[in-house]
Amino acid sequence: MRPTIDSPAPRNTLLIPALAPLYHFGEPLAYALLRVCYGVIMISHGLPKLLGQAHGSMADPMAASINLIQNVLHLPAPALIALFVALLEGVGGLLLALGLGTRLIAAMMGVQMLTIAGLLGPTWPWIDRGMEYPVLLAFLSFYILFRGAGHHSLDHTLGREL
């Protein structure tokens, strides 16, 4: 039977219906953990830039970002753009983890990830550059943007969301 405008769509039934309460209870927690994990990952990229600390193979990740923006991407004001990126990753990551300003931060991170994927990976060198990560994070950003902060967030606690 096909649903019409007047009739509801058929509901999917669970293979193990007894698990429904677990799914109902666990979904908001799982979503909150997903959002927090993404925020922490971004903090781990932004904080070293902001603090001038080494990160992975980069002795000075802020200098590396400025060099990339200036000499590879040829964008104006590379130091200012690098500072914005570091703040988005560091402070924005913290806000995302806390669930504060979630939709706005997710939108900005999504644009950043799509920009990284588009400018630095047009040939999709997955093995050498790992472009699957910014693409996945872009889609995760847009999912968070459309879903919102969720129940376990400061946005929800404060009773507001963008």
UniProtKB/TrEMBL annotation:
Organism this protein belongs to: Pseudomonas chlororaphis
Cite the source lineage: Bacteria, Pseudomonadati, Pseudomonadota, Gammaproteobacteria, Pseudomonadales
In the bilayer, the protein is annotated as:
Multi-pass membrane protein
Q: InterPro entries, alphabetically? A: DoxX, DoxX-like_oxidoreductase
GO CC terms in record: plasma membrane
Superkingdom classification of source? Bacteria
On whether Cell membrane is a keyword of this UniProt record, the answer is yes
Query: What is the name listed in the Swiss-Prot or TrEMBL entry for this protein?
Result: DoxX family protein
TM segments?
A: 77-98, 105-127, 133-150
Record keywords, A-Z: Cell membrane, Membrane, Transmembrane, Transmembrane helix
Q: What's this protein's family per the entry?
A: Belongs to the DoxX family.
Query: Cellular location of this protein?
Result: Cell membrane
